[in-house]
Write a structure and sequence with these properties.
about 180 residues, Rossmann fold, 6 helices, 6 strands
Length: about 180
């Protein structure tokens, strides 16, 4: 299971330009712990173009991921990896979501079959990422999700496989699918 970071695991605050602004959703640790218990890898995939835009250093991305790891561990949950793209759209790299470069790298490093994978995120780009990799896309209504869904879904060439309130609900559905 691939998870978007901002708006899915933690509050969407625009550009998370300081670790003090990190607010992990209360349901996140329990949801990820259930994935851990079920033996489902939980991997973060996130665009962090604030680095290439000069808004914050790449070291902040590492610091935020360390803080997320610590907070989840305190609740008995763990993430199996963090993959991020620091490029802007203008860079036209293959790792910037919704292009599948991050998933392809993670699948090689963790021996994951992308066609059996799920991407959970609060933007349509996360759903596009899932579909581009041959997996299934889950749109959560946290972060930008509600607005993206309400105001733009009629424009989407392919709808999400599921639209759910939050990460905890997504984990419920995915664990049932995997049974």
């Amino acid at each position: 299971m691939f998870l978007d970071r901002d708006g899915t695991i933690c509050e969407e605050v625009g550009y998370l330009n300081h670790v003090s602004r990190l607010q992990i959703y209360p349901h996140t640790a329990g949801a990820i712990r259930r994935l851990n218990e079920a033996g489902v890898p939980a991997i973060v995939v996130t665009n962090q173009s604030g680095v290439s835009r000069g808004m914050f250093p790449e070291s902040l991305v590492t610091e935020v991921h360390r803080k997320i790891t610590e907070e989840l561990a305190a609740s008995g949950a763990r993430l199996d990896g963090f993959y991020y793209c620091t490029h802007s759209k203008a860079d036209e790299c293959n790792c910037r979501k919704p292009l599948p470069g991050l998933l392809e790298r993670a699948s090689r490093e963790h021996d994951i079959d992308l066609t059996r994978s799920f991407v959970v995120g609060d933007r349509y780009g996360d759903v596009e990422l899932a579909h581009a990799a041959g997996g299934r896309g889950v749109l959560v209504l946290t972060g930008y999700g509600s607005g993206d869904y309400e105001y733009h879904r009629q424009e989407w060439p392919r709808q999400p496989d599921w639209v759910l309130p939050d990460l905890a609900a997504a984990v419920d559905v995915i664990l049932k699918e995997l049974q």
